[in-house]
Design brief:
Elements lengths: L1 E7 L5 H14 L4 E5 L13 E2 L6 H8 L3 H14 L1 H11 L3 E5 L4 H5 L2 H9 L4 E9 L6 H18 L3 E6 L5 H10 L3 H11 L2 H16 L7 E2 L8 H12 L8
Parallel strand pairs: 1-4, 1-5, 2-3, 2-4, 5-6, 6-7
Length: 252
């Protein structure tokens, strides 16, 4: 079994991309299943095979412990970690070729608490990787782009997984997409764009972050994806195969 975690900021399209990946693998002859790790989600665009909502109930947690939504989410994520054996047994019974893991919308609760890292480490799998979603609607300015790039690098550090960076909602940013893709591969181009938007402390801080990211090998490019049209899924699957299957791609 190969495991693919789908992470990103709230509203970046994680669940929709999860559904597209599930459809892609299924149509191309692979057995894929989905694990939902978000205890607070209400509607999903896919049929979930393993669902943490079967183990924790946000409303019950809020009522029992007199917590607000955020506090309940924190407790729920910690409780989910204590159910890892039950979750793993469910996954083992299904035994898919690919397990696609839809992570919580509140990425900070998943990535920065020990329970999230624990779940990533303790889901048994032959290979694992993470897809980080750059929300196309958020990264149309260079400073926003650097901010999300910093978050992506931080998530990669926390989860300690090979990571594929994708930009979503490409159908909404067609006029800016070429420029954004240039920013992701040519840091000089990005730094020039920053200089036109910011000065003083903002420019100094942003370019310092950018150079630090460059030292970490960030400038490897983004894979553009449209969850609406499906454009880019073939390229994403190819990148996944290079990590998970030693380059043996699913037949299209």
């Amino acid at each position: 079994m190969k495991t693919i975690f789908v992470s990103g900021t709230a509203g970046s399209g994680k669940s929709l991309l999860t559904s597209k990946l599930l459809d892609y693998y299924t149509k191309n002859g692979s057995f894929a299943a989905v694990l939902n790790l978000d205890p607070g989600v209400e509607n999903m665009p896919y049929t979930c095979d393993v669902d943490v909502r079967d183990y924790v109930d946000i409303v019950s947690i809020m009522n029992q412990y007199e917590l607000g939504p955020n506090g309940a989410m924190i407790m729920a994520n910690d409780l989910i970690a204590s159910k890892i054996d039950d979750i793993q047994n469910e996954v083992n019974r299904i035994n898919p070729d690919y397990l696609i893991v839809d992570t919580p919308g509140q990425i900070e609760l998943f990535a920065y608490r020990s329970s999230g890292r624990f779940l990533v480490e303790n889901i048994s799998s032959d290979e694992k990787t993470n897809i980080f979603l750059f929300d196309g609607a958020l990264i149309t300015t260079p400073i926003n782009f650097v901010s999300i790039a910093l978050l992506a690098t931080s998530i990669r550090l926390r989860l300690n997984l090979p990571t594929i960076n994708v930009v979503t909602k490409t159908d909404l940013i067609e006029d800016r997409l070429k420029q954004i893709l240039q920013w992701s591969t040519n840091l000089n181009t990005l730094e020039n764009a920053i200089s036109k938007e910011a000065d003083g402390d903002t420019y100094t801080l942003t370019t310092s972050i950018l150079r630090g990211l460059n030292l970490g090998g960030f400038a490897q490019g983004l894979i553009p994806i449209s969850n609406v049209t499906g454009d880019g899924l073939v390229n994403l699957e190819g990148a996944l195969s290079r990590i998970l299957n030693l380059g043996e791609e699913v037949e299209d």
